[in-house]
Amino acid sequence: MLAKLKSLTERKINNVVRKSLFDWPLDFGLETAVMNNVEGDYHEFGVFEGRSFIKAHNSFKNLLPRSEFNKMKFWAYDSFEGLPETNDPYAPKHFKKGAYSAPEDLFTSNLKKAGIDLNQLQIVPGFYDKSLTTEQSKKSFSERKLAMTYIDCDIYESCVPIFDFITPGLQVGSVIVIDDWVRHHTHPNYGMQRAYNEWLERNPSIKMNQIALSKRIMFVVYEV
Asked: Containing domain of residue 60, as a range?
């Protein structure tokens, strides 16, 4: 009995530690943006059911002075129809068209349950090749630059338009956290790494500092 209890406890502890390590770049990114007084909004690409979005909102709320927090908008970008199709030979088998689909009303319902003020929420629905237009970029960054973005879109085809979209919103100190960095065989020519590398090649003036890496990776912009 004691052996079973010990084994169960160890598994629970391991799961907590594992999750904390996975979340560390996201948590540290939120703290870094606040610590460096980076003014701007939060932009999340791939919100799914809202877990990381709620975490980000609550972290900024707890860490920022109320006057600064009230200025923020929290932008959510998602197709709400799951992933588009990918031609990446190294993509995990479950990264299929329609995977990670969650309806918009489920996302907003979860935010309401978490006590989030929806007046601060801006939702941009649609697949990114259609929704992340130049006009939308101007609208998203017309008033405030990007303090932090969390990109959780899994595949190359989704990430390419994201990086081009956020470029006008970048400032020194902007925090960029990308999920699934070590997927796609951790190959620099596939997945998120390919999209990121190609983006920097197109924009040589943008300089990034890698700060943290686990399942996710965190960068901070130091030159634009």
From this structure: 20-223
Give me the CATH number covering residue 120: 3.40.50.150
How many C-beta atoms surround the C-beta of residue 109 within 10 A?
Answer: 13
**What secondary structure does DSSP assign to 127-181, as a single string?**
-HHHHS-HHHHHHHTSS--EEEEEE---SHHHHHHHHHHHGGG--TT-EEEES-T
188 in any annotated domain: yes
Cα 21 to chain centroid distance, Å, stands at 16
In a domain, 5, yes or no: no
Tokens of 166: 């956020």
User: From the CB of residue 76, how many other CB atoms can be counted at a distance below 10 Å?
Assistant: 22
Q: Is residue 212 part of a domain?
A: yes
Encode 127-162: b = buried (16+ Cβ within 10 Å), e = exposed: bbeeebeeeebeebbeeebbbbbbbbbbbbbbbbbb
Number of compact structural domains in the chain: 1
User: Tens digit of pLDDT for each residue in 55-108?
Assistant: 999 999 999 999 999 999 999 999 999 999 999 998 998 999 999 999 999 999
Residue 50 in 3-state DSSP?
coil
Q: Which residues contact 106 (CB under 8 A, 6 or more apart)?
A: 49
Q: Which two tokens stand for residue 157?
A: 């085809």
Paired residues of 82 in beta bridges = none
In a domain, 13, yes or no: no
